[in-house]
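#onboarding

Welcome to the new folks! Below is a worked example of what a typical request in this channel looks like: someone posts a single protein sequence, and someone else replies with the predicted structure as tokens. Don't worry about understanding the tokens yet, we'll cover that in week two.

Example request:
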Amino acid sequence: MKPEILYGVHPVQEAVRAARRDIQEVLLTSGKKKGGRLEVIERQAQKAGLKIQQVPSDRLTAIAGDRRHQGVAARVGPLPLFQLPEMLSGMDAKPAPFLLLLDQVLDPHNLGALLRTALCAGVDGVLCTHDRAAAPTPSVSRISAGAMEHVRIAIVTNLVSAIKTLQANRFWVAGMDAAGKQSLFTADLAGPLAVIIGGEEKGLRPLVKKQCDFLVAIPQASALNSLNASVAGAVVMYEACRQRCAHQEA
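Example response:
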């Protein structure tokens, strides 16, 4: 399989730190003093026993396909993905596992932002749809500032079937819907939870919406249509995080 090219300080550093990918080599710009973050990456790569190659900046640009490589890139294998049963088996001991489901989120920038927030908010795994959806590519890793390298991701072909599996495994499934009758801030999000964010413009598909246990909306002070997927996702993930922290402290 052809290797992928990660580039930029955060994606490469987090890939080395996460140690989930097969990293064939780390490429650093030659001919100038490294210092700072590049020196840190070099030390981390050496400690991990990885091959390190010094290349001219223009060669690194050609390899990365982008001038914004920040002096570092890496040839890597694909990000390891999970099957849904495998992901669930790792959550048996958790009293209140927390999953994020994405229903055909197409924009790589939204996917990257959602993955970054998911990692920070303590989400245990992210399920993405196989069709008509952004994939976890090196570009998304860069957008996520390397957070994607740590997030457990599963790609599912049938989201409705996946929801039914989650419900059979003690999860309550909450769909984010601007027309939802329940406010996000009155919903109980402290237990085993799977939150679904709909795709850009269309939101949740009708069959997906129908399968949800409840639908919640983010209160808005204006008549603007709705928040975009990554912002809505950040709001709901941190409200769930807030409730879980409060529950643990009680």
